[in-house]
């Protein structure tokens, strides 16, 4: 690499620079007349006496200029903001004119304490019933991370096995996925990065909450606020968070969440005339030591909640119907589609 020369007061460039500067008093004029950069002008005019006649090496900067870094950061921010705006009430076009069923899959927690038989039974219904579409409410695996990694010592399922199970659930189980939420367990150990990497079908994967619109061929819309959990709890009402969202957040027709490993369904007419469904999916985690120690009940039903939507129906109480039993919901959907 070229060496950076240390100029002395006797160097012709130094003399020339000082001559011009003494006449004009302008460093810019020195740069102009000598055809050199401003930084070199500074180096030439900084020489007042002879330094030691040595040469030091110069090295390239360790990074690109700050302005270029800012340009890159601005582009990345613009892209993130563009995505953030795009996922707010994004549109899901439904090209099927018949009634459809939307299954809100409760926390699978694929691992040692997953109720595998119940999950398999429900997966079979989801995969084989015509007109069903599915939304994963998050916590696909336990994914213990941080100080909770010690809980892996209590399980027989490794991280590698969890990844294999998650891949099966996403790609190979035959489930018609439409949206995936990223729950708190999915972010432990950065498991969400793995989920997004294997998402070959580009199913929308959204952190914690997705607000989207089902748009049907006849122009009918159903607005869904699906969250791993809505804000707010009450010991008297398991749907407190969903009711709070219905009253204070943006308008939707269905408010549904998972996370708490309990289930409930409620349909009601609000003061503004909206008829809404509030629901929680219980999920598939059984034998929960945390729930036992904190005296939470181990509920037996409502692993996933299914809402049947009839886009041709104008009466809101008939247009949306919710089921805690997928078998019953699938039978109703099949009958309604044939009708």
Structural write-up:
- It is a single chain.
- The protein has helices spanning 12-24, 27-34, 38-45, 66-86, 116-128, 159-172, 184-187, 191-197, 240-248, 289-293, 316-319, 326-338; strands spanning 3-5, 55-57, 88-94, 100-105, 132-136, 177-182, 205-207, 209-216, 221-227, 254-257, 264-269, 275-280, 304-309, 320-323.
- Helix 6 links the parallel strand 5 and strand 6 (177-182).
- It folds into 2 domains: 3-57, no CATH class; 90-338, 4-Layer Sandwich (Purple Acid Phosphatase, chain A, domain 2).
- By secondary structure, it is an alpha/beta fold.
- The relative contact order is 0.13.
- Helix 1 (12-24) crosses helix 2 (27-34).
- Mean pLDDT is 91; it is low at 1-5.
- The chain is elongated.
- The chain contains 12 helices and 14 strands.
- A 6-stranded mixed β-sheet has the order 3-8-9-10-12-11. Strands 7-6-5-4-13-14 form a 6-stranded mixed β-sheet. A two-stranded antiparallel sheet has the order 1-2.
């Amino acid at each position: 690499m070229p060496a950076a020369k240390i100029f002395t007061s006797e160097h012709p460039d130094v003399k020339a620079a000082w001559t011009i500067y003494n006449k004009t008093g302008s460093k810019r004029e020195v740069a102009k007349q000598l055809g050199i950069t401003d930084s070199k002008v500074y180096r030439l005019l900084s020489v007042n006496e002879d330094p030691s006649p040595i040469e030091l090496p110069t090295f390239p900067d360790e990074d690109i200029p700050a302005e270029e870094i800012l340009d890159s950061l601005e582009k990345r921010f613009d892209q993130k903001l563009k995505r953030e705006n795009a996922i707010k009430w994004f549109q899901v076009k439904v090209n099927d004119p018949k009634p459809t069923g939307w299954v809100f899959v409760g926390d699978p927690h694929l691992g040692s304490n997953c109720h595998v038989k119940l999950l398999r039974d429900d997966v079979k219904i989801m995969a084989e019933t015509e007109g069903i579409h599915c939304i994963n409410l998050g916590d696909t695996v336990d994914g213990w991370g941080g100080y909770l990694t010690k809980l892996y010592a209590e399980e027989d399922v490794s991280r590698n096995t969890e990844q294999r199970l998650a891949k099966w659930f996403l790609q190979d189980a035959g489930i018609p996925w439409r949206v995936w939420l990223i729950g708190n367990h999915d972010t432990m150990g950065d498991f969400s990065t793995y989920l997004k990497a294997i998402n070959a079908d580009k199913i929308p994967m959204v952190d914690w909450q997705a607000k989207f619109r089902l748009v049907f061929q006849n122009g009918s819309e159903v607005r869904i606020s699906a969250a791993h959990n809505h804000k707010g709890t009450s010991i008297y009402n398991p749907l407190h968070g969903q009711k709070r969202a219905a009253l204070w957040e943006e308008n939707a027709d269905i408010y549904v969440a998972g996370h708490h490993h309990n289930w409930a369904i409620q349909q009601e007419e609000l003061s503004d005339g909206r008829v809404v469904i509030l629901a929680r999916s219980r999920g598939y985690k059984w034998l929960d030591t945390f729930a036992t120690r904190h005296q939470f009940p181990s509920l037996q039903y409502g692993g996933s909640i299914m809402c049947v939507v009839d886009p041709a129906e104008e009466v809101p109480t008939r247009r949306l119907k919710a089921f805690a039993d997928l078998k019953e919901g699938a039978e109703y959907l099949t009958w309604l589609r044939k009708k």
